[in-house]
Amino acid sequence: MKNKVNISKTTDIIKVLLVENDKSKISEFTSALDQSNYHISQVSTSGMSLLREVNAFEPDMIIIDIESPDRDMLDSLNRISKSAPKPVVMFSDREDTDLINALVKSGVTAYVAGEVNPSRVKSILDTAIARFTEYQQLKKELEVTKQKLTNHRVVEQAKLWLMKTKNHSEEQAYQSIRKMAMDNSQKIEDVAKNILSLASMLEMSS
Amino acid sequence: MRKIEKLEQPQLTIGFMELTDCAPLIVAKELGLYEKWGLSVTLEKQHSWATLRDKLHTGLLDSAQMLVPMAIASNLGLNCPKTEVVAPFVLSRNGNAITLSENIYQEILRIHKSKASKIQLPIQAEHLKPIIKKYKTYGKKLKFAVVFPYSCHYYQLVSWLNSSGISEKEIEIITISPANMVSALKVGDIDGFCVGGPWNAQAVRDKIGFTGVTSSDIWPGTPEKVLAMLGAWQCKNKRTAQALIMALYESCLWLQNITHRFEAACLLSKPCYLNTKVEIIAPSLLGSCLTFYNTQPREVPSYNQFSLPDERIGNCPDTIDGEMLVRHMLQAEHVSSIAQPALPLNTIFSSSLYHQTLDRHLNSKTLMKENLPKTGNINEALAPQTLLKMK
User: Fold this and answer.
1) How much is the ipTM here?
2) Which chain B residues are Cβ-neighbours of A96 within 8 angstroms?
């Protein structure tokens, strides 16, 4: 069952998928976010059917009970899915607010603890989105840095090989890689990779 | 009467998942072993690995049954805040299996024009090759499910495929909850899964799956679940941690006996634990792998292992197992090579607390196998012999 809401064309609208079948919980969330830019659709499916709902609905955010067995599946979506990752916000009926707050502070996951309080829940969701965006940004930067490091290492190795086999100085080795890259309109790291694969072929046959 | 020393924190909350290999935690409770060591333990059933992990990280749980790779992932901060988790005690070894849908199984039999009896068990992934190839021509991939990405299940599935020269990239591996596995297999959403008990036996009993290979065939004797706690908690509560280790050590010794194993299955079947029928839980505990309906079960004595022949080291963590898992995590690209040296495997899987504990307590007279309690709540109608003959 799915209660579709009308989604206007405002770009600010945030599509939220609430995975829950408890009626009172659903109405708590719906009324708490009634006047906000968060538009809630609710589903009560589990497992693969839930996965299909997520794929079809393409929510910007998912809200799920912390005790739901589907959490592992939704969490791993962000790790493996090629589509845009989404923040998963957990709610809990427990009142251990302090401990859950500790989690929120330290982690990338947001929790709504205890009763769904209208004034609080929106700010929690706002924070969750902001934190998630920040985290994704960091992750991307990290990947770029890692890629740069790898590229750097490849070029260094190719240089070393040229220095060893051609008696080039470091500068000469670098210039000859650069020239090859320019002549073939290739990236320096791609030329370096080619040199290294050639080198390993030569070493194998010798 | 043994004098019980003062413990820093005698009241503990321990998390467990509804799986057959949570047996040591349940048995210790039902047999009064926690009390014997001065502990008052509340067992809290968890429904997802990520939530169990988060609760342990924040102290909502003092200790928990944990997937070995999850202890590593916690220390690396993979999909979670980086948290020092230690694993001073191995709760179980083996216990997982790969189950294929009936469709895929029938396809294998058809392709090889063979009768079920001609397929050698444990089944080789080789048999999947023609099916993978056929699917490829339709632009499809075989879909397998595991319960958590950082799990032995995932790496064992990959190992099994690799051993027949199949790359994990040739299939699709997704995560779904254990409770949804069997139904997903039934409706054809997935073609197979690698999970722990009782879900493999459940699929066979439901006549929808074929269990061809267990983790004791793939990685014999490898730790599957550990007792996890925060490093800081263990430092602060050393005597409590030792008491907990002793209670669980005795529990695992008790589980060495086959009749006790059956009693354990009866205990596990209770609603507050697995809430599943005894005939589904018991087979793997009794060393019997249900393979397919109307088929004689396969004998797999170490299907669920809670100790080793040398009981003294039966539950001792070992850095070597951690190193082996890190290699698999690297291969699966779950860990980057940069993060690896920062990983304190020697601390996570330190054997020192385990040895200290046993050195201190093992000579006490209370710890003799024959002194271990007997529950005596065996149900005669479902005695092990009867059960094993059930198809």
Assistant:
1) 0.84
2) 60
